[in-house]
Amino acid sequence: VRCTATNQTRRQYIVFNTAGNEGKRILVVDDNKTNLTILKAQMEQWKLVPVLASSGKEALELLEREAPFQLVISDMQMPGMDGVELAQAIKARQPELPIMLLSSIGDETRKAYPNLFSAVMTKPVKHQQLGKLVQMELRQQKSEGDIANSPAPVQVLSETFSEQHPLVILIAEDNALNQKLAIQILKKLGYLADVAQNGLEVLELLNLKNYDVILMDVQMPEMDGLEATQHIRQNLTQQPIIVAMTANAMQGDREICLKAGMNYYVSKPIMLEDLKNTLKEAASQIKQQAQQLTS
Q: Is the full-model pTM beyond 0.70?
């Protein structure tokens, strides 16, 4: 292909809100030196501190010698110890340390090991996708100073609930108070949920990560829950279970939500038992679907 050089250059920069995440240490594991170089440059651009390892064995040594780390990003296909084996070894030592997996085989690994990875990204990973997931994961963590000065942790309502019913959950809610309430309830059940402000953010996050359940507020700005649900049902291959959340207890609301493609319906303010029962049914439905695919 014969080409001529342009006289004008234009660089496109993808800007992320890195406030509060500056200086956090990321362990990056990949046997490919080129991949390590690229990931290192990306982390540094986001004001993070990458520490590089070229094998699972080296990564475990670094974890012992140079802790603490706030996040691990690992390749899947590596000689000696693959990404799953490395993650299992890390979780045995530091069960709270989040791990992201870069895989060329798709999302099957997350489904096979639902509690092992916070995200599984299919290579080649887009710069913007990786950046958003990394920033989102780091924001969910408290700094060591915050942890030291924070009050005693909220008592867990059921330590085994999320283990018995493993789910990756997204909360779609524009009201800050309702967001905090939903996050706290889910945290008491053992879940760490992501949050979207409106339907457009839901669709954007679904392009980055697969969710088992979306707790979808019906009334949101820019794109409401009904529109977002219809778009998901018509366009996405990976179909989450969608739970409608609405303060409108009008007769017929439930039918409108179900007609739009939502699976369940809960009224706000959310009652704990209603949510638990809904999540149980959702987990059971996902388990049945997985069994049908493997049978």
A: no
For the chain, the first-to-last Cα distance in angstroms comes to: 50
DSSP character at residue 175? -
Q: For the chain, which ranges sit under pLDDT 70? A: 8-18, 105-112, 114, 141-159, 248-252, 295
279, 241 in Cβ contact below 8 A? no
DSSP string across 12-24: -------TTTTT-
CA 10 to each of CA 6, 45, 80: distance values in angstroms, whole numbers, following the listed order: 10, 18, 43
- Please list, residue by residue across 154-173, b when 16 or more beta carbons sit within 10 angstroms of its beta carbon and e when fewer do: eeeeeeebbeebebbbbbbb
Our measurement of the distance from residue 252's CA atom to the centroid of its chain's CA atoms, rounded to an integer in Å, reads 33
Residues 109 and 75 sit within 8 Å (Cβ to Cβ)? no
What's the token pair of residue 179? 């967001």
Phi-psi region of 53 (alpha: psi -120 to 50; beta: other; left: phi over 0): beta
pLDDT at res. 137:
85
The secondary structure element, H or E, covering residue 230 is: helix 225-235
Element containing residue 205 per DSSP (H, E): helix 199-206
185 is written with which tokens? 């309830």
